[in-house]
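Reopening this ticket.

The earlier resolution said the output was attached, but the attachment link was broken on my side. Pasting everything inline this time so it's all in one place.
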Amino acid sequence: MSTPNKDIDKVEVRLKWDPSTAGEPAHDLDIIAAPYTTDDLYGGPAYLVHFDSRSPDGTITLNRDSRTGQGLGFDEIMTLELDRLAETYGRVIIGVAIQQRDGRRTFGDIQRTGVQIREGYTNLSESDFSEVSGATAAVVAEFTRDSSGVWAFHPQVRGFDGDPDEFAAAMGHRPPGS
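Inline output:
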């Protein structure tokens, strides 16, 4: 995982999980994208893309949203057209958050979770969140643009413990010790 993939144009983030058992509150996981401007790469995001939203310019869209995990295959899918993203943006962080409306839930509490980052038919990374099983949210990818405009992919799975709002505000900050 130490070598980033370069010249990434259009990617798809795919998320899956099993529904809760009968009688239990629904498990609701969400993909969140946070673009950062070149003049504030590690501050607050310029905007967020998550359920019921898309980027102002249409370059980041949530194509499929699930509130229960029911269905076959991947339950949520987000597309990022990095090659169309304005030069104002130099970094995009992708995270996954578990809604905490009905009590604290972690990735370890939800069966068969999985996230996949793809460019075309090529898998750039995959995770089942086992490395962050005690977390309520996780950063799953970072995309950075170099001075020539080429995007690079940096796979990672970094856990976070808190509600989705706290996670969205903090997901792009530098990890401790970096």
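Reporter confirms the inline version is readable. The chain is about 5% helix and 40% strand. The first strand starts at residue 5 and ends at 6.
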